[in-house]
Design a protein that fits this description.
Elements lengths: L2 H28 L6 H18 L3
Length: 57
């Protein structure tokens, strides 16, 4: 295995997770004080992942 490629993959994974956290923080901040926002954000975060998990390959 090429350790350079593994390092790049780990770095990209970390960056996309940080980006995801920032985007979610913005969504939660915009929805603060509005009823049902947390539930809609969570559904919007997990529904596409669930769809990918059950989709035929």
């Amino acid at each position: 295995m090429n350790l350079g490629i593994i390092g790049q993959e780990a770095g990209l994974f970390a960056v996309t997770n940080i980006d995801d956290i920032l985007v979610l923080a913005l969504f939660f901040a915009q929805g603060a004080g509005h009823k049902g926002v947390t539930r809609r954000i969570a559904i919007g975060q997990y529904l596409p992942a669930a769809g990918l998990a059950v989709s035929p390959r």
